[in-house]
């Protein structure tokens, strides 16, 4: 009896932890996008009036980025296979009320997880090309050429490495203020000759 091979479908996931939203409120939004394609889910989240939709949209974008960058999938061809919100730690606070009383407040957090599935095969990721190894003739000629070009190359690199700093404008002298707060007029900078001083 021949065995049929079923195509293996890999999942890509993204998770946001300690989101400041209760798990129940996040689940109401997650129920609307479960099973939808990525473009359709983005449209639903964009027009949702709930605050949790913004955080869920960030997680969805992260999952799509993981699929495209790490696994070679196309984000628009993926489907949300699973999405759920687990309860996180609870912040306990108090709210002051009348007559010295206090009301107990519980601020919940949640962990949002989204899993994406693609039915199409991933494309091959582009790998950086390795430089070709030089031949034996090139390696024997290489030391002579590098010795001759080394001084010129180092001088050119030294000139390019030191860019000229822009000149700073000369600082203008400030007028000195007296006790009354008014600026004194500056004294004349020109020197009088000794003969004129004697006449005065």
What does this structure look like?
By secondary structure, the protein is α+β, with helices and mostly antiparallel strands. It has a domain of 108 residues: Ribosomal protein L22/L17 (Ribosomal Protein L22, Chain A, Alpha-Beta Complex), CATH 3.90.470.10. 36% of the residues lie in helices and 20% in strands. It is built from five helices and five strands; from the N terminus they run E-H-H-H-E-E-E-E-H-H. The strands form two sheets. A three-stranded antiparallel beta sheet has the order 1-5-2. A hairpin with a 5-residue loop joins strand 3 and strand 4. Helix 2 packs antiparallel against helix 3. The protein is flat.
The CATH homologous superfamily name of the domain at 11-118 equals Ribosomal protein L22/L17
Measure the end-to-end span.
130 Å
Shape: flat
Helix % is: 25-40%
Q: How would you spell out the order of helices and strands?
A: EHHHEEEEHH
User: Average pLDDT, to the nearest integer?
Assistant: 80
């Amino acid at each position: 009896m021949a065995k049929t091979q079923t195509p293996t479908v890999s999942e890509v996931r993204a998770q946001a932890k300690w989101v400041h939203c209760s798990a129940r409120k996040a689940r109401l939004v997650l129920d609307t996008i479960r099973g939808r394609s990525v473009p359709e889910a983005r449209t639903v989240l964009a027009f949702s009036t709930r605050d949790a939709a913004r955080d869920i949209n960030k997680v969805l974008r992260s999952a799509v980025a993981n699929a495209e960058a790490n696994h070679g999938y196309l984000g628009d061809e993926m489907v949300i296979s699973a999405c759920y919100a687990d309860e996180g730690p609870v912040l306990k606070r108090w709210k002051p009320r009348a007559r010295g009383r206090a009301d107990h407040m519980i601020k919940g957090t949640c962990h949002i997880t989204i899993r994406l599935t693609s039915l199409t095969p991933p494309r091959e990721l582009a790998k950086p090309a390795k430089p070709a190894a030089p031949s034996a003739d090139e390696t024997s000629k290489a030391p002579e050429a590098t010795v001759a070009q080394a001084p010129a190359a180092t001088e050119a690199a030294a000139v390019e490495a030191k860019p000229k700093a822009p000149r700073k404008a000369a600082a203008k002298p400030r007028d000195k203020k007296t006790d009354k707060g008014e600026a004194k007029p500056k004294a004349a900078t020109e020197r009088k000759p000794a003969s004129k001083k004697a006449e005065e």
